[in-house]
Amino acid sequence: MKATAIANTNIALIKYWGKRDETLFLPMNSSLSITLDSFFTVTTVEFCKNFDKDVFFLNELQATDKESNKVFIFLNKVRDLAGTNLHARICSENRVPTAAGFASSASGFAALAAAATRALELQLSEKELSMLARQGSGSACRSVYGGFVEWQKGIQIDGKDSFAKQILSEKSWDISILSVLLVAEPKKVSSTEGMKRTVKTSPFYSGWLSTVEKDLEEAKEAISSRDFEKLGIIVEANAMKMHATMLGANPPILYWQKGSIDVIHHIHKLRSEGIYAYFTIDAGPNVKVLCLPKDEKIVYESLLSLTDVQEVIICHPGSGIKYLE
Ligand code: 2P0
């Protein structure tokens, strides 16, 4: 009873920020992402009646109690679905620069959901798999699919209408996503904590909620008409707005560092010179830059010339979950 799955991570273009249910990972707003081709997690799950407890290895080392507990709690949800109490051995390899604040939980829980359900021979549809992965980490529900993906927030209290779906395949529109790794300390506030504090205390959060669904609709229109400039403007503004809600939290949350701001100004300068590049920033200091493949080289080289930039990794739209036999 063993299976291996690979899931790519994703970058949100319209952000998920805030939960209405912490246990079921139900979001306050819908979101939109691109699945990336270069950052992924490979996970093998084996269930066996001879195992007397669950064990979790991350990058060949036994994981910390904190990391393991999150995984075992999620595994209980899979066991409930399958009606089994078998223990498991989980081996995960993260090809995501974890310490740098890239979202490894998205690829991590998508790969875990896929490998665990396949090992137990549960026949889940992609929609059911997305709903399950969501309950490990919200953004994981989007990593089930490749290309451009929308996570519909849903309105039901049981979460049965909160899942992701592909809106455009990875082969239908190639854009470049440059992940800019900065000289930075590990973040002090987790996404989960940051969301909670923002929803509870930020006076700007109502402004986020009243405008984000419109941002999503405009982004979808831009994607469907392959209007890169229109998409870039919405994506950049949506990220800024998310960070503004956090600055209004009590105590305030600031994920940016000096290098983040340098990249923001640099992207604005590139645009003033006629190069269509746009940025987005998640719950961390690192910046992702979107541009068209024809401008990829020049944007890449110009980013590397900035003092606080350690590395730039070029990604393109990637595929959904894959299984290894
Ligand atoms: C996103 N982020 O849409 C947003 C934008 C960060 C900023 O989803 O608490 O690891 O496990 O559901 O999914 C990162 O948070 O949080 C995230 P949980 P998750 O990608």
UniProtKB/TrEMBL annotation:
Domain (Mvd1 C-terminal): residue spans on this chain: 183-307
InterPro entries: GHMP_kinase_C_sf, Mev_decarb, Mev_diP_decarb, MVD-like_N, Mvd1_C, Ribosomal_Su5_D2-typ_SF, Ribsml_uS5_D2-typ_fold_subgr
The protein's Enzyme Commission number: 4.1.1.33
Protein name, as recorded: diphosphomevalonate decarboxylase
Lineage, highest ranks first: Bacteria, Bacillati, Bacillota, Clostridia, Eubacteriales
Cross-referenced Pfam families: MDD_C, MVD-like_N
Family: Belongs to the diphosphomevalonate decarboxylase family.
Keywords, alphabetical: ATP-binding, Lipid biosynthesis, Lipid metabolism, Lyase, Nucleotide-binding
Every Diphosphomevalonate decarboxylase-like N-terminal domain range: 7-164
